[in-house]
Specification:
Elements lengths: L2 H8 L6 H16 L11 H36 L76 E2 L11 E2 L15 E6 L4 E4 L4 E8 L1 E2 L23 E12 L15 E5 L7 E6 L6 E11 L18 E7 L2 H51 L1 E3 L5 E3 L6
Parallel strand pairs: 1-2, 4-11, 6-7
Antiparallel strand pairs: 3-5, 5-9, 7-8, 7-10, 10-11, 12-13
């Protein structure tokens, strides 16, 4: 048998230098000890070579079998570390995750492993949604049995980069943490007021009040855009930030669909909210026209905030306002706003006064009625002419 064959049997890699060196050493050692068979005239070293080759074959086969068994056992252990709930009658389990979770494999570090842990599988993503109780017109959902881990194969992945030039991108990152319904984001513009009028080319502040958002978290949009999933803090509140965007429209009653690429002002509100409010200053003001301003509440990697239910109020706010170069319009608008505020305040005071007067009158009427009742029932004479007294006034 050739040295190459023996080397291939003794080495994990066929014909490798290590295998050949080991084979040469073994065969040379046995040849030095060999002698001829006087009867058959054959070299015993050659016979021993065959024996060595046979043993090497057996040893290699044994090693290969052992290795295969170890690998198979490891793979099986990795796959079988978690039991997954597949009961179609239970859309979610008691822990709210749709699975029965246990400890992960992957050497105890699931966050660096390239193997998908079975505990993150759910049963419903494999269904189209048309199996039962679907409304008329419902379309089939895309399905998966592996959490879409390879969905972006063959596509241009985002890789944390934006696509400003019309690129068709695919994001392989999951959605991440969703807050409870009691922690869904809410927002409302404090300034400008809806239908307000502002002077042209004059600085003004946009003030947004926001709740249930841990503001001030803003990653690099040139490198980490949509680069990771939505995260929650220890109070189960979304970690992120907000934007405000101003668009020019034709009129207050305009119904034309706007172009998302055309905006008059855009600002990321990167700082933490002060008393629940975020502020952006439009330092150069705006030209005359009619505008709308909207909020965009986002997670730290700039994706719009995600919540756990479909039926919810708007998570963002929008108001409309006018920018005018007519000082009279601005002054009239300011005066009108002040007048409306004064009227509202006066109405509130009048309501309070009316309530107070009504309360006083009611108290007086009640007192008078009680007095009259006492006078009427404090005494009298019976049918026999005998005077009687009520229990409350009898001496």
């Amino acid at each position: 048998m050739s040295l190459g064959v023996v080397a291939s049997l003794l080495s994990p890699e066929a014909g490798s230098p290590g295998g050949r060196n080991l084979a040469e050493s073994i065969i040379a050692r046995h040849r030095r000890k060999g002698h001829r068979n006087p009867t058959a005239g054959t070299n015993l070293a050659t016979t021993k070579d065959s024996t060595i080759a046979s043993k090497a074959t057996t040893t290699a086969a044994s090693k290969a079998t052992t290795t295969a068994v170890i690998k198979a056992t490891t793979t099986t252990a990795s796959i079988s570390t978690t039991a997954v709930s597949t009961d179609s009658n239970l859309p979610i389990s008691k822990n709210g995750k749709g699975t029965t979770t246990t400890t992960t494999a992957n050497n105890g570090n699931a966050q660096t492993s390239l193997t998908l842990d079975p505990s993150v599988f759910g049963s419903n993503p494999a269904k189209t949604g048309l199996e039962a109780n679907a409304d008329a017109g419902t379309v089939a959902s895309l399905t998966t049995t592996n959490n879409f881990i390879n969905f972006c194969v063959g596509k241009q992945i985002m890789n944390g980069l934006q696509g400003p030039n019309g690129e068709v991108l695919c994001n392989p990152v999951h959605m991440g943490g969703l807050p409870p319904v009691t922690k869904m984001v809410g927002s409302k513009f404090q300034s400008p007021k809806n239908l307000a009028t502002i002077a042209t080319n004059t600085a003004f502040d946009i003030v947004l009040a926001v709740s249930n958002l841990e503001t001030g978290a803003f990653v690099n949009p040139q490198l980490n855009y949509f680069g990771t999933l939505q995260q929650l803090n220890s109070q189960n509140t979304i970690i992120g930030h907000s934007y405000v965007v101003v668009e020019l429209i034709n009129s207050l009653d305009d119904t034309t669909v706007t172009n998302p690429q055309k905006f008059a002002f855009f600002k990321g509100l990167n700082g933490k909210a002060v008393n629940g409010r975020l502020t952006a200053t439009v330092s150069a003001g705006l030209p005359a026209g009619v505008y709308r301003v909207a909020s965009i509440n986002a997670a730290s990697n700039h994706q719009p905030v995600l919540v756990p239910v479909a039926q919810h109020c708007a998570l963002d706010d929008m108001v409309y306002f006018t920018v005018s170069n007519n000082v009279a319009d601005v002054n009239n608008a300011a005066a009108s706003a002040a007048r409306n505020k004064a009227i509202t305040t006066t109405a509130a005071k009048t309501t309070t006064t009316t309530k107070a007067v009504t309360t006083v009158k009611a108290v007086k009427a009640t007192t008078t009625a009680k007095t009259t009742k006492v006078k009427t029932t404090t005494g009298g004479r019976s049918s026999r002419g005998r005077r009687f007294f009520s229990p409350s006034t009898e001496p």
